[in-house]
Write a structure and sequence with these properties.
Elements lengths: L8 E10 L4 E9 L3 E3 L25 H13 L18 E8 L10 E4 L4 E5 L3 E6 L4 E7 H4 L12 E9 L4 E8 L6 E7 L8 E7 L7 E10 L3 E10 L4 H4 E10 H6 L3 E7 L2 E2 L2 E2 L4 E2 L1 E2 L8 E6 L6 E9 L10 E12 L5 E3 L2 E7 L5 E7 L2 E9 L6 E8 L10 E5 L5 E9 L9 E9 L2 E10 L8 E4 L12 E3 L5 E4 L6 E9 L6 E9 L2 E3 L13 E2 L6 E8 L3 E9 L4 E10 L2 E8 L6 E9 L2 E9 L1
Parallel strand pairs: 20-26, 25-34
Antiparallel strand pairs: 1-2, 2-16, 3-12, 4-37, 5-6, 6-7, 7-8, 9-10, 10-11, 11-12, 13-14, 14-15, 15-16, 17-18, 19-21, 21-22, 22-23, 24-25, 26-27, 27-28, 28-29, 30-31, 31-32, 32-33, 35-36, 36-37, 38-43, 39-40, 40-43, 41-42, 41-44, 44-45
Length: about 625
């Protein structure tokens, strides 16, 4: 059956796939050929934007969620709980560089970023987009999201932009983004594909209706990922002007042939809908990104019962193959975690006892896959302290008939934590290593941004990336918006580095400060992209702008001492000890604080030692 929708949106066919405990339907579409956007030629000198005092609350009406939070607070009141002393901890991440980004933000800002292999960065928030050259530490272009996408004709007050997500495709060396325009009957989705590896260059833009089903719903809250051949975007369909109980209809998955977008042709995509488990719609499907590379043809997603006071169910969803492949399916498994999650309380702030930061619910906010392991993070409540905390989940082997979920709650009894994201680092523990970043706030601390390192077995101490200057209170009521998500991306051609983006409280009328931070590690492990039999340089990159890697071998597991000297034999203050495994290792050291020049890196363990020269650029 053919059904006609607006001219830019044509349906091809519908297929329903019955499964044992769930059901899913897919519909194939084509959008009209792309409209061109060239940011450098957009007349947007002053980045004009009208900021609504509050973006739509993700998921609709607040009342049900606030009732759940009150019930949770009665069951798990806030109290001081002594934190157990750690006998040992993973190495603390190092701040390499940091930029203040994206002023004139919405409420909340909704930070996200993407960075190319040659250091071009796009930093995006609800209201605007900034383009950076991180090699030169320069912001070379700024544009409002409305001006950047005005070639699509979605202009005026009914089409305000919100919920931006940007991602870098390291295989195609291109950027992709998704952006909402309007709500209710005005709802549209904007997809963007860069024509080159410069995000400040030309883009192919597409618009599709936010109501593809003709059922008076609108599209909300995207999440994104990219595979070898496709681009995935998820979101929620909400009924117009309705409460959460009656307003939410379903979550959907857009499966897009990214090659058609890069070429500017008619955009070919599939919408998966009616995604249920035991007859109940799954909500807030979050895309799982590739940890060490782009995966495919399959794509995984995660969901949970994010409005429950306590629940231990994690839903693992899989789209099995690319568009057009025979037998492509959507599969759902319900997994049971060893620790429950639950709706978090609102976050406290220094400087006010009457205005709190909204933590939304316990939906999954970040995740990656490495081989057959998935790690993810979400908001939660710590039931011992009653505080808002971070839920870190690990699914060690997704190939099992019934995969297990191991969970840890990251918490501080004097702080509330929220809106985490996670990016894979290296494989040197029982599980994949990861950088976890999140917001923090508390009665004695203004809202800021924090990160910690998980080495596969242990967590590092938290490192403050940006401390707040004041509490956040742009709205008149008690509940203040704190975010909806935060950004995190690995540096694909140097996987010891991660870029993260987050917010902090800002003194003055702006309220929100936005930053992008590059983090690195001292680490030792096998290079993820090399095997033992492959030849590789002993020290690289050389010259080194920010981080130096050196490969070495040791006969036995042993403690090594490392130190950097200048050419006069003077120690430069970079010295540390690390326990290294037998065999080949690679050591990474952040050297961005060293002046330009020649240096010597020395390592020693008993009778084993090495010495290598390198240049700091």
């Amino acid at each position: 059956m053919i059904r006609f929708l607006p001219v830019f949106f044509v349906m091809c066919f519908v297929c329903t796939l019955p499964l044992a405990a769930q059901q899913a339907t897919y519909t194939d579409y084509k959008a009209a050929p792309a409209q061109l956007s060239e940011p450098v030629y957009v007349n947007d000198d002053f980045l004009p934007v009208v900021i609504n005092l509050e973006q739509p609350f993700p998921g609709g009406d607040k009342k049900f969620l606030m009732d759940q939070k009150q019930l949770s607070a009665q069951r798990y009141p806030q109290r001081l709980v002594p934190q157990p002393k750690k006998d040992k901890a993973a190495v603390t991440p190092q701040i390499i560089k940091q930029y203040v980004t994206n002023t004139n933000s919405g409420i909340p800002p909704d930070n996200y970023l993407a960075v190319s292999n040659d250091g071009k960065m796009a930093s995006m928030i609800n209201s605007n987009l900034w383009f950076w050259d991180t090699m030169l530490d320069t912001c070379y272009l700024k544009r409002s999201n409305s001006a950047f996408t005005n070639s699509l004709g979605l202009n005026g007050l009914n089409y305000s932009r919100s919920d931006p997500k940007m991602i870098y495709d390291p295989y195609a060396d291109r950027f992709l983004f998704v952006l909402m325009a309007g709500a209710d009957q005005f709802s549209h989705i904007i997809f963007g594909f860069s024509q080159t590896n410069d995000p400040g260059g030309a883009w192919n833009l597409y618009k599709v209706t936010g109501n593809p089903f003709g059922d008076t719903t609108w599209y909300d809250y995207p999440a994104i990922s990219v595979t070898e051949n496709e681009y995935f975007v998820t979101g929620n369909q909400l009924r117009h002007n309705s409460s959460w109980q009656s307003g939410f209809k379903q979550s959907v998955i857009y499966q897009i042939k990214k090659g058609t977008g890069y070429a500017g042709d008619s955009l070919e995509y599939r919408i998966w809908s009616d995604i249920k488990y035991n007859g109940r719609a799954l909500r807030n499907l979050h895309c799982v990104k590739g940890g060490d590379r782009l995966y495919g043809p399959e794509q995984y997603f995660l969901s949970n019962r994010n409005f429950d006071i306590q629940n231990d169910t994690i839903f693992l969803v899989k789209v099995s193959d690319v568009m057009g492949a025979p037998g492509a399916q959507l599969q759902v498994k319900a997994l049971i975690a060893d620790k429950p999650y639950g709706v978090p309380p609102e976050a406290r702030q220094k400087g006010t006892s009457t205005q709190f930061l909204a933590t939304n619910d316990a939906r999954v906010l970040g995740g990656f896959i490495l081989n057959n392991e998935i790690q993810f993070v979400s908001n939660t409540i710590d039931t011992l302290s009653g505080n808002a905390a971070v839920y870190h989940g690990i699914i060690p082997d997704i190939t099992l008939a019934q995969p297990q979920v191991l969970a840890h709650i990251i918490t501080v009894d004097t702080l509330d934590l929220g809106y985490p994201n996670i990016t894979r680092m290296a494989e040197n523990g029982m599980h994949a290593s990861a950088m976890i970043s999140f917001n923090h706030s508390g009665p004695q601390r203004y809202p800021g941004y924090t990160a910690m390192y998980f080495n596969g077995a242990e967590y590092s101490d938290m490192v403050t990336l940006r401390e707040g200057e004041d509490f956040i209170a742009p709205l008149s009521g008690a509940s203040q918006r704190w975010g909806d998500y935060s950004g995190s991306q690995i540096v694909w051609n140097n996987q010891g580095l991660v870029w993260v983006s987050g917010i902090h409280g800002l003194a003055g009328p702006a309220h929100y400060g936005n930053t992008a931070t590059l983090l690195g590690m001292y680490y030792a492990s096998l290079p993820p992209s090399a095997s033992l039999s492959e030849p590789a340089p002993l020290i690289y990159p050389n010259p080194a702008p920010e981080i130096i890697n050196v490969e070495f071998s040791t006969k036995n597991k042993s403690d090594w001492n490392f130190e950097v000297y200048d050419m006069n034999g003077k120690a430069c203050g970079l010295n540390f000890k690390y326990s290294c495994k037998a065999g080949k290792n690679v050591l990474g050291i952040v050297v961005n604080t060293l002046p330009a020049g020649m240096y010597v890196l020395k390592g020693a363990s008993g009778t084993e030692q090495f010495s290598h020269k390198f240049m700091k650029r």
